[in-house]
Write a structure and sequence with these properties.
Length: about 60
């Protein structure tokens, strides 16, 4: 359990550093979320959340 909480904490730190201006967290339901102003983004995985935030920022995605 401790290992998992450390992984979540590390991922939260990474996402927060990458997406300044967004409040990022992980809810009790396991969903990752990001809030900025009146924008809310939710996802089941941290990586999917990252991709969605990049999309909102207009960063082209590589396939």
């Amino acid at each position: 359990m401790e290992h998992t909480s450390q992984q979540v904490a590390r991922r939260l730190t990474e996402l927060t550093a990458e997406f300044a201006g967004w409040r990022i967290g992980r809810g009790g339901s396991g969903h990752w979320w990001a809030v900025r102003g009146n924008q809310l983004v939710r996802s089941l995985t941290a990586e999917d959340l990252r991709l969605r935030l990049l999309e909102l920022a207009g960063v082209p995605q590589q396939v």
